[in-house]
Specification:
Low-confidence stretches: 1-17
Helix content: 10-25%
Mean pLDDT: 82
Strand content: 5-15%
Length: 108
């Protein structure tokens, strides 16, 4: 099986968040979504977008947004949302894919 990694062609040169590491991670997240069979209960409407959440400090900058822009899986597009840590994580309920930033590593 060959994975079709997202192309960095849309990346802006000089943007610090466009490191190859985060281009690869953004491509992986997009490709991951293509291989998931989402239960119908995962979405409120048949055309609801796939929500990709980034919890904590966003290392992607605009890279993740550009990778999934105008892409669809079936009738579903993508939305990228950023979240801050809180004890009440109700906002994450509508998130289908969650990237947890290294900033959220808590040491005892």
């Amino acid at each position: 099986m060959t994975l079709n990694w997202a192309s960095p062609a849309g990346a802006q040169a000089g943007d610090a968040s466009d490191s190859s590491e985060y281009l690869i991670k953004a491509g992986f997240i997009y490709n991951f979504a293509k291989f998931v069979e989402w239960p119908s209960t995962s979405f409120s409407q048949p055309e609801s977008p796939i929500v990709i959440g980034v919890l904590g400090t966003d290392p992607f900058g605009s890279v993740l947004d550009r990778i999934v822009a105008d892409k669809k899986i079936g009738s579903r597009g993508f939305v990228v949302r950023r979240y801050k840590w809180s004890k009440d994580l109700k906002d994450l309920r509508d998130c289908q894919i969650l990237f947890i930033s290294a900033s959220e590593k808590h040491t005892p």
